Amino acid sequence: MRAKAAVTLKNQQGFEIKEIEIDEPKANEVLIRVVATGVCHTDAVARDLEGLVEMPAILGHEGSGVIEKIGTDVQNVKVGDYVVMSFASCHHCENCLTAHPSACESFNLLNFDGRTLDGSTPYHYEGKDLSIFFGQSSFSQYVVTKADNVIPVDVDNEEDLSLLGPLGCGIQTGAGTVINHLNPKAGESIVIFGTGAVGLSAIMAAKLTGCAHIIAVDIHEHRLELAKKLGATHTINGKMTNTVEEVRKITKKGAHYAIETTGVAPIVLQAVHSIKPLGTVVIVGFTGEVTFNIQNDLMAEGKTMVGVIEGDSVPPLFIPKLVELYKQGKFPIDQLVAFYSLDQINQAFNDSSSGKVIKPIIKM
User: Fold this and answer.
1) What is the CATH number of domain 173-309?
2) What's the CATH superfamily of 2-168+332-363?
3) pLDDT at 363 > cutoff 90
4) pLDDT tens-digit profile of 173-185?
5) Secondary structure (DSSP) of 11-79
6) N or C of the chain: less Cβ packing under 10 Å?
């Protein structure tokens, strides 16, 4: 079949709307009509960083949609189901079998290699193969993906469904880091560096767990105002205040936990210095080289620094929980988003990069 997609022809170039060819689903695959897809920083990294994904490609990895066709072996979904797509995992390595699929031993192969395990791709443009991204490539009107890469969700209509794509990556990363990995006790303190979609999702999750101090750090005042509305008890503008001193003033001795979402080296160090002895810093963003003193910054006070991928979530279990929390009004993801059409995708990325919009969503 033919469909429109936002194609990345070369690294560091804008998306181009092209008509592509899409193969029929194989026995263990499904065809999904994409209703909407989130725009994530990881898509921008894949677009701009040479060598991460083979070009040309269709990026996008926060898709939600409707099942149109199923392969002969598919049993977990049926035609007409509303679904969210998440990251791909093998489901049989040690990490997958112990409920840590985001640390799947084949994670990079399945999400960044650009091909299915048999070396093929269902997407083609002018006779050339287009690489798959995160097992889905949701910047397309239609997607072919493995059936175990989709999660049925209980919503009433496609308007509600259009909000849910970001649960597949950015939102589950923030919320899952708090709920699945840190699991803070009521009364403890947490500081979140960066109030984009990941950081704000962490703030909403921290509110649900009963944290006494939920401290949001950013340089955009409008984001800090939204953070306060969504559950932050304190906000810090990192451009105007000594962040570490302010966190210690609020918490008396440093926060129990810090979540670093920005990937900016100096801010990583601020996160380490903001936690109390025996505290934990979680790194969730793309982060390069950071120089720090192991003895002074970590060892001397028994601090922990850990990387967490995709909120350490099991998507078929965690995403429906987030949907239910949203329906109950306890997880208001609708306050994070702005909608764009497919032909506005480059503007959506610009608005995300500038900080104007928290979570752009492309409606197909």
Assistant:
1) 3.40.50.720
2) Medium-chain alcohol dehydrogenases, catalytic domain (3.90.180.10)
3) yes
4) 999 999 999 999 9
5) TT---EEEEEEEPPP-TTEEEEEEEEEE--HHHHHHHHSTTSSPSSEE----EEEEEEEE-TT--S--T
6) N
